[in-house]
Amino acid sequence: MTPAGARGGVESRSDVSAEFFVPAVGPLNQGDILIAPIARVAAPDLFVPDKWDRLDQDEHHTDRSAVDGEDIFLLSGRELVMVTSHDCHHDKEWNTEVRRLVRAGEAQEDAETIAEANTSLDRNFHASPLVPLTDCPADHQGNLRAGKVVGYFPIPASSDGSFPDCVVDLTYRCTVDRLAISNRRWCLSQSARDRLRYAIARFDSFRSVELSEQLESAIGREITDVQVDKGSGIRVTLTLDDGTTLDLVQPPAEPEPGGRTHL
Amino acid sequence: MTAHTRIIRGKDILDTDPASLIVAPIEPFSWSGTSAHICVIAASPWVSETRTQILGADRTSWPATFNEPSASKSEEVERLRDEISNSCGLSRQDIARAMGVDRRSLSGFVSGEIQPTPERLALLRVLADVATWTAERFGKRAREVLTADGEQGCPLDLVAAGLTDLHGAVEAAAHAAGVIARAPVTIRHRKHGEPLYLRAREVWIGRADLPTRAGVLRDPDVYEQDLAEAAATSDTRGRARRRRKSI
Fold first, then answer.
1. DSSP class of residue B33?
2. Which of A3, A67, A170, B165 could be A164's S-S partner, Cβ–Cβ 3.0 to 4.6 Å?
3. Which CATH class is domain A13-205?
């Protein structure tokens, strides 16, 4: 099962790839692409969806009859993953420790050095595996490639041919020890990282992240016009004094006895 | 060094019977025993005999050789005794057992009537370390674990015998005491598609790296949240969804 395009040349994909990826350098970053072991908890039937066939390389069965009788089943493997934890997460404990050391009397520079040498800090991060588009259902590939499916973040094939067109499968997220990773090469460009963050927020909270920002910016403005969508009867467009508009949607409700639904 | 031990230096080690050699910590005493803190000593008959008795001659144990502590011995014994009692509830009888003495001798060490030998003091320090992490690992059942007979023996007796690498022995004792149960694991390689990483690893040879460990100083606010702000994201517009009848 070789992913389509994985062994192809570097022709037209390079332009797209150059916009999307930059070489990964320095500390761990959100959007880094690297090789890491991954695992997920499974049911006793060890069911593997087609799209995860490459990921689930080993089956683990922990016999807990001597403990509580509830056996545990895992599927694990090693794969290309994208770091999804925010950059702040990767030095959270380091920051706490530096502050503690400084309060204890260490010089700032010494405190940072001591904290950096402490291998117990900031050990874990979240990552999601790369899944070739060709491993996803054929009728979904178009929407997946266009980034329209919540829970998936599409990335183009790498210019060096190391991976084909993929989606970062946010529905498979695992906690990885940073000391267990190997071979980091690429990271998302800034604009691509913005899109990744949107995809993560959209998936985790499952709502538009724009909503609160739009409402905040409207506070204090005067409404200059109101338009009601006569077709559906549930959409209202407010025009504000700065020319911007807000689309409000009334939840559908039972009609009144007269058959009319009030806005 | 004490009368029971002799430091072996340089090539002299080649002329010494390996069965009588023991790796031992030197000051400052370190539980984990980094290479900077160990030396090789010729063991006393007491240590060799006990080690062979407990483990067989092929195992390495760490009897102790120490300089004098800065505090008085009686003060240190009292402090460690109380730490051990508080952390895992070992009785004075238990502590004395791990030191290889009786309870009256332990009381004598504390009162200053009897001077503990450096070896006895070292055993108490080891016990304090073992007690600390056993308490962290097993909580209120720490004493039960330390007094249980595992595959290698009772941890208290192993401390008295001069062992310091006791993690395995304590786990075995916990298992014997029924505090933990070991679960056998079966791993089976399944037939699967070719993972992407194989190709990437091949392409990235010599070009991939590992992240550096350099933190970025951030404002503490970055790591704080105010859950009261959650109201701003309240999802009261949720549409009724068709739900699964069963899982």
1. -
2. A3
3. mainly beta
